[in-house]
Amino acid sequence: MNAEWFFVYGTLKCGQCREMCWPATPLQVQTGFVRGSLIDLVDYPGLLPGEDWVRGEIWQIAAPQVTETLRVLDAIEGYQVAGGSDNLYDRRRVEVYRAMEDRQPTVTAYTYWYVAPHPHSATLVPRSPQRDYLEWPTGETS
């Protein structure tokens, strides 16, 4: 194993509030897309099953830093054990496409799916007329 990929779609992206929490410098960061839907939980998003395209970033982390990266991201995302009832998110592998037009996924990456009960303040992130994908933050103001 030379490296692992991580798909992020919220506060761990470049320029967001938790970008500096990554314990390792990535080998590379690229735009990526997965199938799903997004819920806006005000301060952060949650990835849910769905058929829309969700835009995020794929971070490639060198093999020697993968274990520590998983430990740190698991703590940030409230992940304790696969399928655990106390998890805020579940860590899973997902197929990531570099472009929505691609017929085959480019990489398989770790990501975090939101599994906690949805608070009343949560809303689904809508697809805007200006783009064919979902993204958080939306950049739109109410």
Automatic annotation (TrEMBL):
| Alphabetic keyword roster | Lyase, Transferase
Its Enzyme Commission number(s) read 4.3.2.6
Record keyword Lyase present: yes
Mention one GO molecular function.
lyase activity
Q: Where is the Gamma-glutamylcyclotransferase AIG2-like domain?
A: 6-120
Carries keyword Lyase?
yes
Write down the InterPro entries for this protein, in alphabetical order. Answer: AIG2-like_dom, GGCT-like, GGCT-like_sf
Enzyme class (EC, first level)? lyase
Highest rank taxon of the organism: Bacteria
> What name does this protein carry?
Gamma-L-glutamyl-butirosin B gamma-glutamyl cyclotransferase
Name its species. Roseimaritima ulvae
